[in-house]
Task: inverse folding
């Protein structure tokens, strides 16, 4: 039971991180991941609230997650704009948009919402199973399929992929949208499985943590997943530590998971495993 | 990455984005240079809050007070999120637009208010807690500690495990003070009661973290949990529901929460103080002072959930009532931090 609860709290970061691995292997850093998750959370909650169906909520969450990733892709891939700038804009847009819509729907002074959740069997919900299945599936997709090879080529040396007859931008867009699906799942998981609720800025930086987990996990879905679990474990541990009443500022306790991540990163940090063209837009005529 | 080229754009986007969360548009506030006489004649009240007013907690209360001023006094009102170095600028902006009252909802607004008020004698600045006063600067002090004291008292009387706890967003001085009162109330009822140290989850709105933190508090044996979680309170209530323990609501009356575990709420009633103050300014009789708002003047209350009243033994109910009247009459002194 303890382990299942750990899986549950780690799932949003784990799902988003695994999707982001696929995106980054194609050479795109989706800094707007946080925004995609937040928008997915909001619409998953909103649709579930209005239709009373968490499954329709899930569809809405995944749909808006993909759409937000698509918006990022339109600027960052098709228009070849700077990925950090576009991602930052997407995050701010998401915060403003969800905040405004939340207030217009539920009143300026807000509400503590409670919507239906996706049913679970002994704490195991369908999305958790999907997450566990995604670990080998995404590994296979990236490492053992022709599509995965082509995507990796786009991330390492896009000119070579281009010369081999692949459309770099199309492949990158596909990888980005897969990341979008997982961002949508992550946001929906937060709204429809863990909390059954929504509040402004509910994702609270999980998208950024997921991006860090990709680096932490050396751009491999299985390691990103484990990294997210480790962070999730450290997080639940620090709440326990707080109840012990040690004379340590709680901010330090909350930072504990990230300190652990940093230490691990320093220890395993050798070897350049990041995609060679990560973050660089591809222009054909250059 | 040639990031440098985009830095100006990033800055612009950032500024634009920051504003987008506000309920009132910033553009509107910036039109201020020419103010007509009719503009001056209207009674105008502004509110600065540290966080979103949609938090169903601290900020929402102030917003409700502002709305009461608007609907019952016909005042023009505006609200804005403001923190850090922005506070003084925002106060100046409102004062230049001839706002009669500028509320700052937190102790951190008091110091900037003292500075800005010197330049704008026609505007009254009022902050929620904070010690500085001047001719046109004053403060509210909401003694929510009294509500928390009663909650702790009740929890200690009813706890079966002998342990109670709390989950809060941050260790703001106002929050810490209420949690101390909660512990003091519990000890007053039952010296042997175990009060877990406060647990904080850090970020406003992080419902999942609030839930996870609450689960840990319950795992340590707490069967009554109070919160200062604002918009993330649902996470606290849901964890209590799943583990079948009781929760207390805070700031607003949260007894009717769908979780069905909120056995009572420690409540601030802001409507009266906000309106009284605005009224005093309007009649030009306001003098800067620190207004104490407590149970004695019906601004703080502890409300039992009528739906769960059967769960509360009658002798506990009587004791709570007696305690409330003792606090009102001043017979019981509830500890309060100065901030």
Result:
């Amino acid at each position: 039971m303890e382990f299942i609860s750990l899986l549950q709290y780690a799932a949003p970061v784990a799902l988003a991180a695994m999707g982001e691995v696929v995106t980054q292997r194609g050479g795109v850093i989706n800094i707007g991941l946080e925004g995609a998750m937040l928008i997915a959370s909001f619409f998953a909650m909103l649709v579930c609230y209005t239709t009373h169906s968490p499954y329709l909520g899930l569809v809405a969450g995944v749909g808006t997650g993909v759409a937000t990733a698509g918006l990022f892709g339109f600027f960052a891939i098709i228009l070849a704009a700077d990925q950090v700038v576009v991602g930052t804009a997407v995050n701010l847009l998401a915060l403003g948009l969800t905040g405004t819509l939340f207030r217009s729907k539920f009143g300026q002074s807000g509400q503590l919402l409670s919507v239906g959740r996706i049913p679970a069997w002994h704490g195991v919900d369908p999305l958790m199973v999907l997450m566990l299945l995604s670990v080998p599936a995404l590994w296979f997709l990236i490492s053992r399929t022709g599509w995965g090879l082509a995507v990796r080529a786009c991330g390492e040396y896009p000119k070579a992929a281009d010369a081999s007859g692949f459309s770099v931008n199309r492949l990158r867009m596909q990888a980005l949208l897969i990341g979008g699906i997982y961002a949508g799942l992550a946001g929906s998981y937060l709204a429809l499985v863990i909390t059954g609720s929504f509040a402004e800025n509910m994702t609270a930086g999980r998208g950024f943590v997921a991006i860090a987990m990709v680096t932490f996990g050396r751009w491999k879905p299985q390691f990103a997943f484990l990294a997210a679990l480790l962070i999730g474990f450290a997080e639940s541990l620090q709440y326990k530590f707080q109840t012990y009443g040690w004379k340590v500022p709680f901010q330090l306790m909350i930072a504990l998971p990230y300190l652990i991540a940093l230490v691990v990163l320093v220890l395993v940090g050798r070897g350049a495993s990041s995609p060679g063209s990560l973050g660089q837009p591809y222009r054909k005529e250059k | 990455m040639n990031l440098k080229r985009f830095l100006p754009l990033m800055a612009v986007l950032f500024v634009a984005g920051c504003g987008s969360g506000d309920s009132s548009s910033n553009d509107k506030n910036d039109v201020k240079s020419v103010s007509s006489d009719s503009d001056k004649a209207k009674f105008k009240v502004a509110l600065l809050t540290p966080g979103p007013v949609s938090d169903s907690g601290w900020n929402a209360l102030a917003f409700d007070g502002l709305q009461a001023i608007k609907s019952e006094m016909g005042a023009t009102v505006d609200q804005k999120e403001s923190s850090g170095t922005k506070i003084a600028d925002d106060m100046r902006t409102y004062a230049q637009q001839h706002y009669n009252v500028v509320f700052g909802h937190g102790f951190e607004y008091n110091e900037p208010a003292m500075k800005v008020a010197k330049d704008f004698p026609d505007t009254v600045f009022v902050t929620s807690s904070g010690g500085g006063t001047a001719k046109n600067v004053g403060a509210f002090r909401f003694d929510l500690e009294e509500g928390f004291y009663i909650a702790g008292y009740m929890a200690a009387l009813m706890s079966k495990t002998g342990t109670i706890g709390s989950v809060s967003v941050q260790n703001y001085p106002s929050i810490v003070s209420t949690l101390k009162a909660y512990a003091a109330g519990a000890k007053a009822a039952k010296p042997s009661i175990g009060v877990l140290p406060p647990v904080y989850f850090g970020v406003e709105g992080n419902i999942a973290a609030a839930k996870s933190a609450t689960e840990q508090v319950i795992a340590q044996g707490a069967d009554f949990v109070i919160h200062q979680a604002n918009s993330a309170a649902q996470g606290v209530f849901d964890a209590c529901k799943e583990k079948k323990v009781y929760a207390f609501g805070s700031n607003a009356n949260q007894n009717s929460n769908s979780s069905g575990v909120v056995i009572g709420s420690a409540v601030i009633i802001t409507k009266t103080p906000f309106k009284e103050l605005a009224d005093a300014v309007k009649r030009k009789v306001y003098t800067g002072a620190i207004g104490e708002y407590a149970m004695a003047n019906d601004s703080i209350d502890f409300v039992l959930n009528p739906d769960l009243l059967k769960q509360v033994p009658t002798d506990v109910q009587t004791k709570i009532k007696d305690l409330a009247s003792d606090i009102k009459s001043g017979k019981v002194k509830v500890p309060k931090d100065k901030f």
Q: What stands out?
A: The mean pLDDT of chain A is 92. Chain A touches chain B through 52 residues (CB under 8 Å). Residues 168-195 of chain A form the longest helix (28 residues). The domain at 2-268 of chain A is CATH 1.10.3470.10 (ABC transporter involved in vitamin B12 uptake, BtuC).
